Amino acid sequence: MILASPPEEDQKRELWLQHAAGMILFQNMKTHAIDGISDNTSEETRKKIIKGIDDSIYGLMMMMDGVCGTLENEEYLVRIDSKIILQKKGETVLEINTMDSDGMCMGFHGWKENDFGEDPVIKKME
Fold first, then answer.
1. Residue 124's pLDDT is what?
2. Residue 93: count of CB within 10 angstroms of its CB
3. Up-side HSE of residue 15: CA atoms within 13 Å toward CB?
4. Residue 53's closest CA among 37, 35, 30, 22?
5. CA–CA separation, 104 vs 98, rounded Å?
6. Sign of CA dihedral 64, 122, 110, 58
7. Residue 96's beta-bridge partner residues?
8. Using CA atoms, how far apart are residues 98 and 116, in angstroms rounded to an integer?
9. What are the pLDDT digits (tens) for 10-53?
10. Backbone phi and psi for residue 43, each to the nearest 5 degrees, phi listed first
11. In angstroms, rounded to a whole number, what is the distance separating the alpha carbons of residues 77 and 83?
């Protein structure tokens, strides 16, 4: 599978880019974590482990959206900024600061069910 071309319309392109980021996170984090579950694990325990994996990914999404994840005192603030960047031939064509939206948290529930939007994020290799 390879990346599909993004939609031309700005609003659709931004949503598509968020879905692409969700796919990257789920393919890399969730798949990696599930692959680490022993084959000898009972089905009940496996379901609990997968729920823990999903809860952890959702926690990351909340940090990416700026819902939580800062440390501060009267003078200083430490936060993690998160950007999703679309490049075409090495040039940035769209950059989304996820701290400015709730898109990652909103997308999570669909991504968990392998729903990555109306516009395809990936296509089969030709």
1. 81
2. 12
3. 15
4. 30
5. 7
6. negative
7. 84
8. 17
9. 999 999 999 999 999 998 999 999 999 999 999 999 999 999 99
10. -60, -40
11. 19
